[in-house]
Design a protein that fits this description.
Elements lengths: L1 H19 L4 H22 L24 H32 L19
Helix pairs in contact: 1-2, 2-3
Family: Belongs to the CPA3 antiporters (TC 2.A.63) subunit C family.
InterPro entries: CPA3_antiporter_subunitC, NUOK/Mnh_C1-like
Membrane topology: Multi-pass membrane protein
Length: about 120
Amino acid sequence: MELLVAVMVGVMVAASVHLMLARNVLRFIFGLILISNAANLTIFAAGRLTPERPPLIPEGADAPAAQVANALPQALVLTAIVIGFGLFAFALTLVYRTYQTLGTLNSDEMRLAEPRGEDGS
């Protein structure tokens, strides 16, 4: 199971780097979200993948009866998913507003603040 997750994380990272190297800002945002999800999956897999042993303590016990999955990476990933969704919503809104203003999503054409030449023309 861990090998499958490791291969999937590798494919996700490769795809996200490919998307982030594109000149289109929207593809960059999708690559950023994809690499964030790959990191979340890596952290989740590091916390022991045991679907038959949830991190629950039976009522009346002080400790779990058997070895269970670590709850800390699961809580960390859940928090990262929520933060990532907020970042994605903000970035998507920013990209939409940029497209409305400039009429393009190509990062090479978004150079309004840079001077055009030495003489300022």
